[in-house]
């Protein structure tokens, strides 16, 4: 039993380092070479490793060693002599931390399912492992590369129904299997096609590129694109290059090879791209396949093609996937995810994996932290503090003092409130300071509030917090705004009119999870954060984009409030209402959409009100009676 | 010695022939690399004549291989095709026969066997069974003998809840072993099943919800807790200030604390050694903490469904540059992993005993092969036990995975109108529903002694009458005629306007996994009587919506019909109000979220349908208590909000409003 050891952590990148031995020629005592020179594929493989981030030419820093002795095909090897050559390697040490690549293991008559060259502790990346030879969690099961991948130009064919339901294209099949396939063809007629070697081809035709059924001649691998399912039967070896051709054609492989360890099965979810049928069930294969719904078949076709593109199509892809798997074992905490391995790009692009995905409703007892961004409006700030402190669930108040020229008022002058009040002085007057993940934030819920928002009632704020608890992964705010596509100008437009839809909320007063402060500060795409600080505008739109992009969900607008209007301030949206303001806000949306590369905002037609809002019910029995001003 | 000398001679010979550069031997014609190009980067050289190298796979080589059959399993290893006969399982369904325990069993074992015997999988006939279950958990020396229909262990599942008990009794052969904390040496991947080691007190169903209430750890939480011997924990006292925002970490400081008791400290990661004795700590750590770090040698996966990268393993300390900040540290990766692990710990299933259901589902998945659960269904909420493979194996068909799949529910719904014994043809309702632009079809479930009227109103959408006297629970039958993801469930008595239907459907599209309804009930704990109750009195919160007018995903019909234990469904038939309670329990158990209420016009009160009495009778009250007992816990969650149209009852012109029908006083 081999277990992992010996790889020193290569901080900070969590990446193993791979060394390649230089090419040497090994001959036996009679001067005959131990093996052929390296194959085209092995040369490609070593080139791919050498070009990758894994490569090091410093043998002392390496964690993994790759010999330049080509053992891809055991047929070309002299077993004993190859083992002796391996043992000559300067760091061999019984194969510890050495990686061998082999695609065609074994030889007649038994055809072992793993390379017969004694390799001791060396890791084997092998094609055609069986459950008996595969050392789970140690060896890596790789595909048998199909040279047709590079030789033939086969344009992609989309998923959907095809001419043949089931196709067998392999030439070297055991007569008993061929008989069973023939029986299937006899039973199901036209929808099953069993191909064989062509016997009467003229000399100049490449026989590997042709298949025949009776007197009909088919081009290979093109014929695979005519079938929905393609049989991949064991031959002498379990691993078959035809698997690669089949995947490429978007034909769903029907793998009939008991105990075969499918390529990269440690990370690839083969259930999504193939059908594995036990050998003894071969007679039932047609009915098994027929029970699969059409939509699932099409997904499998897409998935098969994607597996080929990502992991089968070149020697480079095979080599890098192998190293990634080994890397993931050594640094499991930095391993790439199931989704990254298995989801095709179209799914990755459209899908969202919400980091706050657990269906939790945080306990009310924790409350929220209010963060007030202020510059110098002390009187207004004190009123906001006094008003917010009346909200039952407030647990801490944090004032972000953004004025470097002036000190905050003395401690004795501040309003006396029932919860801790802390003042943070910032080094620079930046809008992004309001979204900084301050250590002082101990609650999950944050209320961002401007220093002039005094019109929100205690009921409105408390209700907002309770709504946030039910939607802790969303922005929960009061006035809603909308983005619209301007067909004339062919760009996005900001809308603050009375609309039936919302896609953003203003962060002049909004609840959200404190995690988004971390994302805003450290993970905002592109130059958006600096751009916002330079323009002193649109930090709220940036936050709306960020949250919608990472969660795939819409904002929640609470209560009917349409604007933040207060007696002293003429400002709306925190700034001015003139046309230039609207133009600037529209510019922000266009800028952010181009940086994100998409429009993440989601439009909804609902807002959240208390259950009994505007219902014919005694006001004094309602939990949040004081809601309703605009 | 002689061989040693021969070997060294060999080596010397070989070494003498080690010719570093090639091109010496004329044997190597084209294939001789001519050396690296000038100026090429270091590393593997770029051979100028690389194109001339031959392929490892010569054309025509593979076809020459002698094809052969190999079927019989050999060695001690097993795999699915060779050691298990799936024919019985496919033809007769997945039936499990349980060997009666000869010896007095442990309480846990007893509970598990009892739950399997009460499940839909159980059969009393060993010949009919696809799987024979044998428990090996007797105290030392009292292990059972080879059972009568052993057959080399074929199609047998040996359940071993405690590591290594009765290990040497007899050869397990072809039997699958479901074992707590197996070692990598004996575990056969894809064949055996690894179980968590359960404490004796582990609840077989329901049980307390996990202690995890937050998405991120409290800033004061320690980074790492180490499981110590004798059940204690030691905290590596890294407070958040040791890893400030800039990512630089200081050495751990502060005293190390030891907790002699078994209580888990407040820590982000828990380090559990791979010793078998510590396996129990694993489940303990999954409860409140955000991640568990395992030392190598311990098998985590349940039959390979929780893949490696989903099991968070973490080293101690803060790797610089990897965002180990106090606030952000949590949410970047940890909660994700925790969710998976919470599912594994059995949160996924509401009412059936956890362990057996899990186990049997894994095995059934293997038998089903192509129609088994994809990994996504095992590893994302609500978990594989609530995503029935008999419904679909495509995540796109379930209401839970739209976001992960980058898709969205389709824009149409099917109205399902239940006409009970006293119901009249709901002509007005049909017109109102058919008026919705989102309506795809109307199905009338005519369950009335009178024959349905021969003619129905002309509607823009197809109207289908399904006749037959049915039980109340049959309204949630997954009729094949339902062609859309969304169902609008209605009673003949319900009264809705087209505006209400349109708005509620648009809301449902944002929350496809939840129920969206108009009329609500609230559950409460009745202190005086010591049991659960519920009320239709309008209060400031609610936890159930009535299915007499509600949108939900059609998958819940399958879940209702095929996963609820018979006893619960009989309950619904005895007390018709109970179907609403049951359906709400079912959806809440799957989503762990409250339903959604949308505004309803006053006419509901005016109509006062008999299904919404102000005071529910004693039978109805009893219902919720019995359903809660059947589920083993109370899954309902309360909500305090209602979703209204954005301009709902705002003082602006009605012409501006999209859902004007909702504005009437």
Topology:
The complex is a heterodimer of chains A (630) and B (665).
Chain A: E1 18-20, H1 40-51, E2 64-66, H2 79-87, E3 99-102, E4 123-126, E5 140-141, H3 148-151, E6 164-168, H4 175-188, E7 192-194, E8 210-213, E9 216-219, E10 227-233, H5 242-248, E11 252-256, E12 275-276, H6 285-290, H7 294-312, H8 315-330, H9 338-342, H10 345-350, E13 368-374, H11 378-388, E14 394-401, E15 421-425, E16 445-450, H12 458-470, E17 476-477, E18 480-486, E19 491-495, E20 504-505, E21 509-513, H13 515-522, H14 528-535, H15 539-551, E22 556-557, H16 579-596, E23 606-610
Parallel strand pairs in A: 1-2, 3-4, 4-5, 6-7, 6-10, 10-11, 11-12, 13-14, 13-16, 14-15, 17-22
Antiparallel strand pairs in A: 8-9, 16-21, 17-21, 18-19, 18-20
Helix pairs in contact in A: 1-8, 5-7, 7-8, 15-16
Chain B: H1 2-16, H2 61-64, H3 80-83, H4 87-92, E1 96-98, H5 107-117, E2 131-135, E3 156-160, E4 176-180, E5 193-195, E6 222-227, E7 233-236, E8 257-259, E9 267-272, H6 279-286, E10 291-294, H7 328-347, H8 354-368, H9 375-379, E11 413-419, H10 427-434, E12 439-446, E13 463-467, E14 486-491, H11 498-510, E15 516-517, E16 520-526, E17 531-535, E18 544-545, E19 549-553, H12 555-563, H13 566-574, H14 578-591, E20 596-597, H15 603-607, H16 618-631, E21 641-645
Parallel strand pairs in B: 1-2, 2-3, 3-4, 4-5, 6-9, 9-10, 11-12, 11-14, 12-13, 15-20
Antiparallel strand pairs in B: 6-7, 7-8, 14-19, 15-19, 16-17, 16-18
Helix pairs in contact in B: 13-16, 14-16
């Amino acid at each position: 039993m081999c277990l992992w050891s010996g790889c020193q952590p290569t901080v900070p990148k969590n990446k193993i380092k791979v060394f390649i031995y230089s090419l040497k020629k090994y001959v036996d005592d009679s001067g005959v070479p131990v093996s052929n020179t390296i194959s085209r594929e092995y040369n490609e493989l070593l080139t791919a490793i050498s070009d990758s981030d894994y490569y090091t030419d410093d043998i002392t820093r390496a964690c993994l060693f790759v010999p330049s002795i080509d053992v891809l095909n055991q047929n070309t090897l002299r077993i004993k002599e190859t083992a002796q050559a391996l043992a000559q390697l300067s760091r061999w040490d019984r194969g510890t931390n050495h990686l061998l690549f082999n695609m065609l293991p074994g030889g007649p008559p038994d055809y072992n399912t793993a390379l017969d060259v004694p390799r001791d502790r060396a890791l084997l990346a092998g094609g055609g492992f069986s459950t008996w030879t595969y050392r789970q969690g140690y060896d890596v099961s790789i595909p048998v590369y199909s040279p047709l991948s590079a030789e033939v130009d086969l344009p992609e064919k989309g998923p959907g129904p095809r001419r043949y339901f089931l196709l067998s294209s392999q030439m070297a099949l055991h007569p008993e299997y061929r008989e069973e396939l023939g029986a299937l063809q006899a039973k199901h007629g036209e929808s099953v096609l069993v191909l064989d070697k062509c016997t009467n081809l003229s000399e100049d035709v490449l026989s590997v590129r042709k298949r025949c059924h009776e007197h009909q001649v088919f081009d290979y691998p093109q014929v695979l694109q005519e079938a929905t399912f393609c049989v991949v039967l064991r031959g002498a070896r379990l691993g078959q290059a035809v698997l690669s051709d089949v995947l490429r054609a978007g034909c769903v492989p029907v793998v009939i090879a008991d105990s075969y360890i499918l390529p990269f099965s440690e990370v690839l979810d083969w259930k999504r791209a193939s059908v594995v049928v036990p050998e003894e069930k071969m007679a039932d294969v047609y009915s098994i396949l027929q029970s699969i719904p059409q939509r699932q078949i099409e997904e499998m076709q897409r998935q098969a093609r994607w597996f080929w593109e990502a992991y089968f199509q070149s020697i480079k892809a095979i080599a890098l996937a192998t190293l990634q798997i080994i890397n993931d074992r050594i640094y499991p905490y930095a391993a790439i995810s199931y989704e990254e391995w298995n989801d095709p790009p179209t799914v990755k692009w459209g899908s969202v994996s919400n980091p706050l995905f657990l269906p939790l409703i945080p306990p009310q007892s924790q409350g929220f932290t209010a963060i007030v961004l202020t510059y110098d409006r002390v009187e207004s700030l004190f009123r906001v503090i006094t008003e917010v402190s009346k909200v039952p669930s407030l647990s801490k108040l944090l004032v972000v003092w953004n004025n470097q020229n002036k000190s905050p008022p003395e401690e004795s002058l501040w309003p006396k409130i029932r919860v801790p009040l802390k003042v943070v002085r910032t080094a620079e007057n930046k809008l992004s300071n309001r979204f900084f993940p301050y250590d002082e934030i101990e609650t999950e819920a944050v209320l961002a509030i401007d220093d002039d928002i005094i019109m929100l009632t205690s009921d409105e704020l408390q209700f907002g917090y309770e709504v946030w608890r039910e939607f802790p992964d969303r922005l929960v705010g009061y006035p809603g705004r909308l983005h619209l596509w301007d067909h004339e100008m062919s760009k996005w437009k900001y809308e603050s009119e009375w609309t039936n839809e919302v896609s953003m909320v203003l962060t002049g007063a909004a609840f959200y999870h404190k995690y988004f402060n971390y994302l805003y500060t450290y993970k905002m795409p592109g130059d958006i954060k600096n751009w916002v600080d330079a323009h002193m505008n649109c930090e709220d739109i940036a936050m709306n984009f960020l949250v919608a992009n990472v969660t795939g969900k819409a904002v929640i607008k609470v209560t009917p409030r349409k604007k933040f209007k207060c007696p002293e301030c003429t400002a709306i949206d925190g700034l001015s209402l003139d046309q230039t303001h609207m133009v600037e806000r529209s510019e922000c949306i266009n800028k952010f959409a181009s940086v994100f590369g998409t429009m993440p905002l989601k439009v909804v037609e609902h807002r959240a009100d208390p259950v009994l809002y505007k219902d014919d019910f005694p006001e004094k029995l309602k939990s949040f009676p004081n809601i309703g001003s605009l | 010695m002689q061989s040693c000398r021969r070997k060294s001679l060999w080596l010397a010979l070989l070494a003498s022939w080690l010719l570093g550069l090639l091109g010496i031997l004329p044997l190597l014609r084209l294939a001789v690399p001519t050396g690296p190009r000038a100026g090429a980067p270091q590393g593997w050289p770029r051979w100028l004549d690389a194109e001339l190298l031959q392929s490892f796979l010569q054309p025509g080589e593979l076809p020459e291989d002698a094809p052969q059959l190999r079927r019989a399993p050999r060695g001690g290893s097993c795999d699915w095709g060779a050691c298990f006969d799936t024919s019985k399982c496919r033809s007769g369904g997945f039936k499990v026969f349980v060997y009666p325990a000869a010896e007095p069993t442990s309480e846990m074992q007893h509970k598990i066997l009892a739950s399997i015997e009460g499940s839909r999988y159980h059969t009393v006939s060993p010949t009919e069974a696809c799987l024979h279950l044998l428990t090996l958990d007797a105290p030392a020396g009292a292990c059972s003998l080879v059972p009568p229909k052993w057959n080399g262990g074929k199609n047998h599942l040996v359940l071993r809840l405690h590591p290594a008990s009765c290990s040497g009794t007899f050869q397990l052969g072809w039997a699958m072993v479901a074992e707590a904390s197996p070692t990598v040496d004996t575990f056969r991947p894809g064949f055996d099943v690894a179980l968590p080691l359960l404490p004796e007190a582990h609840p077989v169903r329901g049980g307390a919800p996990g202690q995890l209430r937050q998405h991120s750890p409290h800033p004061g939480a320690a980074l790492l807790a180490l499981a110590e011997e004798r059940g204690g924990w030691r905290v590596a006292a890294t407070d958040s200030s040791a890893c400030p925002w800039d990512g630089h970490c200081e050495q751990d400081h502060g005293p190390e604390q030891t907790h002699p008791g078994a209580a888990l400290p407040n820590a982000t990661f828990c380090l559990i050694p791979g010793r078998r004795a510590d396996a129990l700590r694993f489940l303990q750590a999954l409860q409140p903490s955000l991640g568990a770090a395992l030392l190598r040698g311990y098998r985590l996966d349940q039959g390979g469904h929780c893949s490696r990268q989903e099991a968070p393993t973490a080293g101690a300390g803060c790797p610089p540059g990897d965002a180990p900040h106090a606030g952000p540290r949590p949410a970047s990766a940890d909660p994700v992993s925790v969710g998976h692990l919470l599912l594994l710990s059995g949160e996924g299933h509401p009412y059936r005993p956890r362990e057996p259901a899990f186990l049997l589902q894994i095995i059934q998945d293997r038998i089903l092969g192509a129609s088994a659960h994809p990994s996504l269904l095992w590893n994302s909420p609500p978990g594989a036990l609530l995503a029935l493979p008999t419904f679909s194996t495509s995540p796109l068909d379930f209401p839970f995975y739209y976001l992960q799949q980058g898709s969205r529910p389709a824009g149409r719904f099917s109205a399902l109108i239940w006409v009970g014994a006293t119901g009249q043809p709901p002509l007005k309702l049909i017109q109102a529903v058919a008026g919705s632009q989102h309506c795809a079809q109307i199905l009338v479930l005519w369950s009335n002694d009178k024959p349905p009227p021969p003619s129905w109103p002309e509607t823009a959408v197809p109207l289908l009458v399904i006749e037959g006297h049915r039980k109340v629970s049959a309204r949630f039958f997954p009729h094949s005629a339902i062609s859309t993801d969304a169902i609008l469930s209605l009673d003949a008595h319900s009264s809705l306007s087209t505006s209400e239907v349109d708005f509620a459907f648009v809301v449902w599209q944002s929350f496809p996994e939840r129920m969206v309804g108009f009329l609500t009930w609230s559950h409460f704990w009745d202190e005086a009587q010591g049991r659960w109750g519920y009320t239709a009195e309008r209060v400031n919160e609610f936890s159930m919506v009535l299915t007499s007018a509600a949108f939900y995903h059609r998958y819940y019909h399958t879940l209702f019909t095929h996963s609820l234990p018979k006893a619960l469904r009989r309950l619904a038939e005895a007390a018709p109000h109970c179907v609403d309670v049951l359906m709400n329990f079912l959806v809440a158990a799957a989503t762990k979220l409250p339903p959604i209420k949308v505004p309803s016009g006053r006419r509901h009160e005016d109509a006062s349908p008999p299904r919404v009495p102000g005071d529910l009778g004693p039978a109805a009250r009893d219902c919720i208590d019995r359903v809660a007992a059947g589920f083993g816990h109370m899954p309902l969650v309360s909500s305090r909000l209602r979703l209204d149209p954005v301009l709902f009852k705002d003082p602006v012109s009605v012409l501006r409003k999209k859902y004007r029908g909702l504005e009437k006083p």
